[in-house]
Amino acid sequence: MKYCKTCNNELPEDNDRHLECRHCRYLKDKANHNEYVKYWSQRPENQERIRQQRRKFKDERYAIVNAIKAERGCADCGIKDYRVLDFDHIEDNKEIEISRALSTRLHIDRILEEIKKCEVVCSNCHRIRTIERRTYERSVKKSL
């Protein structure tokens, strides 16, 4: 009978060439891989490459979102300049802030799902809407 040298569990009979069980080999390989990735990413010659990859990834995501903004335009006043447009959550079902999600590694499909819950409005209209909502919510709370 053979036993794993790491966890001392019994090895299967058909295991002729390994001294460790599958689970222990998996954990060891995972740790080695993570250590190598950390070492590789900290090397000076790879820093610029990583920076460029991250910039490209971020730029692609912003391009998709800015195209949506420019296509829809402001729902209230009609302006189409994506630089002044925001996403306004129509209901109180906000799970993530789109601006923050863009700077994370959240999958673009998840961001697009969140955009479906929004209307595109310019910054001025967004502020007006927010103030009107807050005023309305306060008046409803006072009446109760």
Describe this structure in words.
By secondary structure, the protein is mostly helical. It folds into two domains: 1-42, no CATH class; 44-143, no CATH class. It contains five helices and two strands, in the order H-H-E-H-H-E-H. The mean pLDDT is 88.
Model regions low in confidence, pLDDT < 50 over at least 5 residues? none
Overall geometric form: elongated
Largest sheet: 2 strands, antiparallel
Please give the share of residues in helix: 55-70%
The counted number of beta strands is: 2
**CA-based gyration radius:** 26 Å
What is the residue-averaged pLDDT? 88
Q: Could you say how many structural domains there are in total?
A: 2
Give the end-to-end Cα distance, rounded to a whole number of Å: 76 Å
- H and E string: HHEHHEH
Put simply, the count of helices is 5
The main sheet orders its strands as 1-2
Structural class: mainly alpha
Strand content: 5-15%
